[in-house]
Amino acid sequence: MHHILQVLTPTWFVFIFISRNGINGFGYSKREQHLWPQKYESCAGELQSPVAISTSKAIALPLPALEMVGYHDFLPTPQVLINNGRTVKLIVKKNATYERSPYIFGAILKQNQQYEMEELHFHWGIKNSKGAEHVLNGVRYPMEMHIVHRNTAYPNISHALRHEDGLVVVATFFQLQDEDNTLVRPLIQKLPDVQWAHTERSVNISITLASLIPSNTDVFYTYKGSLTTPPCSEVVTWIIFAIPTPLSVRQINTFRKLSNGEETLGDNFRLLQDIGQRKIYTRRLDSSLWAKDIKRNNSQLNITDLSWFWL
User: Fold this and answer.
1) Is 281 helix (H, G, I), strand (E, B) or coil?
2) Which protein family is it in (predicted)?
C-alpha cells in the first residue's frame, strides 16, 4: 500500500509516491523481504540470520558461562523508548553518574573481548503461533528479544558494523502463560506511551536486564550470523538462551496494540535463512556430551581453536 501526496504548483500537479515503510524503510511481507538484497547487498550473504536451531545437530561443548556485568542493576534513568514503525526499542543513555552500560564477556567470545549494551528490541507475532525470529527444535515462540552489544574495541555501532567481531546479540524467547510476569511489567506498562509509529519518549523504567531473560542462563546456543534487518551486516555473534522467559497473553497483547503507521505492529520477524556450512554450538556442562573431536587438557577447552564452519 502507498500513500499519494498531491503537491500543487502554479501550473501543474506533482504526485509523490511514498511507501508505507518510508523512503528509506523496509517491510516484512514475503515480497518485501525478497527485495531487501536489491538495496542491501549483504542481505543475500551466506551468513544471514535468523536460522533454525536443532539441539540434536548442535555441537555440545563445556563452554565458559556468559558473564553479564550490570545485568542485575537497575538501568539508569531516563531511558529512551521508541516505536520506529517496525519494532519497539529501549535505549540507555550514558550520563555523568552512569558512565558504562551493562556488558558481557566469556562464553565463546575471544579472551579480553568485552561487549557493551547498545539497545534492546523485540520481534513478535499477531498470533501466538509465530513471532520469534529463530526457531528452536521446530518451535517458533510468540516473541523474541534481542539485546544488542557492541565490541568495546570500536567507538560506536557504525564502526562495529565494519568488523566481523563487531556485535554480539543476546537473544531470549518468550513463552506464554496465564499469569503476568511481574518482572517485565514496568516495561510493558510504558508501551502505550509509544503506541503510534515514529514515536519517541523519555521514560523512567525501573527494570534490570536480568528480569527480561531467563533465570537459568546455563544453556545457550551460539553461531556466527548477521543483523536480521537491513543492512543485514554479517558481524554478529549470536548467543541464544535455551530456556524461554514467561509472559502472559495479556502482556503480549500490549505489544499487539502498537501501530506501525497503518495497522497493527507485529509479525516483524525475518524469514529463516540457510545455515549453510556454519556450525551451531551449544553450552553443556555434562562431560558425556562433549564433542569427540575436541581435545581436552585438564578439562579446559581452548576456545581459540574452535572453527565456526564445517570444512
Assistant:
1) strand
2) Belongs to the alpha-carbonic anhydrase family.
Cell of 17: 509516491
Element (H, E) at 283: strand 281-283
Task: Give the rounded percent of residues in the chain with a pLDDT score beyond 70.
Answer: 86
Confidence of residue 97 (pLDDT cuts 50, 70, 90): low
Question: What's the Cα-to-Cα distance from 269 to each of 27, 93, 146, rounded to whole Å?
Answer: 10, 27, 12
Could you tell me the pTM of the whole model? 0.89
pLDDT at 22 over 70: no
Among the listed residues 253, 84, 228, the one whose alpha carbon sits nearest the alpha carbon of residue 145: 228
**Whether the bond into 231 is cis, omega within 30 of 0:** yes
Count of residues for the chain? 311
Q: Taking the chain, what is the end-to-end CA distance rounded to the nearest angstrom? A: 45
Asked if residue 82 lies in contact with residue 199, where contact means CB atoms within 8 angstroms, the answer is yes
